[in-house]
Amino acid sequence: MKWELTEPYAGAMIRVKVGPLYHYGIYVSDDEIIQFGPNPSLRMGIPDSQLSVCTTDIDTFLCGQFLEVAVAADRVERKKMRKPRQVVEQARKRIGEKGYHILRNNCEHFANECLTGEKYSSQTDGVRAMFQNMNIVDLYVAAIPDGEVGTVIPPLRQEQIANTGHDGLRRQRYYVWKLLEYGLNRSLGLKMENIHFSRNEQGKWSCKECCFSLSHCEDAVAVAVSKKPVGVDMEWMERPISLKIGNKILTDAERQQAESIAAKDITEFLLAKWTAKESLFKAGEDSAFYPQRLETDSGVRTEFLQIGGKDYCCSVASQDAQKLRIYQVNL
Amino acid sequence: MDRSEILAKLSDIFKMVMGDQAAELTTCDENSNLVDDLGLNSVGILYLVIAIEEFFNIRFDDVGTSDLKTLGQVVAYIESKVS
């Protein structure tokens, strides 16, 4: 639909700007505009239950703003539009009707329904699409508590945990999954029983409903949750990487950079690079890991965190890494 | 999800909707009025309810949004839907 500053005609769908939104109605004459609820500028304090399809005059409808008239953008839209006489008839039939709902039955829904028979609101659809397309990158970290290992969903993961011989690793796998359960619900409103999990040949877990990445180390677990590919890696600061090994994971430029770093800071530098490269690998599709080829200048955020009294280096890789929010949780 | 978690997530949503002008909800009184105390206008309320639907995975089907005047009422409604 296109909107034009032009003379209205009986049966035209019209709108007026109210702040960043629009108020819609059906024009019959300057003395008869049919609308669902008054212009929002005049609506303060009126509950939705009391709003009804009503008539008003052009001046009250506009509240001093400009009138815009709907014009079909193309032949397809023009075919959908009822004849003006029918639009007026539809609108008049509904005078007195209640049931206003800002999201599902607002003035735009009403006007479009009169005009074409289809009930929709481009305004609410647009805002909804904006939030649906808005990515999130949430990192959850937690210390592994004392306590018994319980059961998890799905059975495939439960089986993996139960078959883990090493006690420490079993506890890490169990608690990272419990943290995942918490994070998926907190960030995306998802419940484990409704999620379709799978595991690839390399052992990486994923699901259809969103993207996530897991990491566990020493006495802590970390989970990254996002709507787009994401990777997380966490390492305990007390288990440093030597420069000899570090040189095998660094690019040429990073090796040069490392030469100018003081000995006391090299552990932090190497752990940051290592976790960054691991997180990038986990966020990507590659099956083989070549850290010396991975640049970490963008798409990664590295944080040094204290979890359960111990120091960890944690990196999250994502195209929206700058949106990272970190939550420390008690499991 | 318990009440404090709902409030924390709602706080995130408020910051998304209102940017720097968002009040820190976790320190607000649950009797705080959305409009008078928290500064939401009609646009903000529209954005807020849609964001709540998307991020909590619920629908505001059985209540008019004008019935939710205070922070406590919003939290209680979300709590009834997510439990």
What is the element layout, followed by pairings?
The complex is a heterodimer of chains A (331) and B (83).
Chain A (H helix, E strand, L loop, with lengths): L1 E3 L7 E7 L2 E9 L2 E5 L16 E4 L1 H5 L4 E5 L3 H6 L3 H10 L13 H10 L5 H12 L3 E7 L11 H8 L4 H22 L8 E3 L5 E3 L3 E7 L2 E7 L4 E6 L6 H7 L2 H8 L6 H18 L16 E8 L2 E8 L7 E5 L2
Parallel strand pairs in A: 7-15
Antiparallel strand pairs in A: 1-6, 2-3, 2-6, 3-4, 4-5, 7-11, 8-9, 10-11, 12-14, 13-14
Helix pairs in contact in A: 3-4
Chain B lengths: L2 H16 L23 H15 L14 H12 L1
Short description:
The complex is a heterodimer of chains A (331) and B (83). By secondary structure, chain A is an alpha+beta fold.
Task: List its salient traits.
heterodimer, A: 331 residues, alpha+beta, six-stranded antiparallel beta sheet, four-stranded mixed beta sheet, elongated, B: 83 residues, mainly alpha, 3 helices
Describe this structure in words.
The complex is a heterodimer of chains A (331) and B (83). Chain A is α+β, with helices and mostly antiparallel strands and 331 residues long. Chain A is 32% helix and 26% strand. Chain A is built from ten helices and 15 strands. In chain A, the strands form four sheets. A six-stranded antiparallel beta sheet of chain A has the order 1-6-2-3-4-5. Chain A has a four-stranded mixed beta sheet with strand order 10-11-7-15, covered by helices on one side. The mean pLDDT of chain A is 93. Chain B has 83 residues and is an all-alpha fold. Helices cover 52% and strands 0% of the residues of chain B. In chain B, α1 crosses α2. The termini of chain B are close together. Chains A and B meet through α5 and α7 of A and α1 and α2 of B.
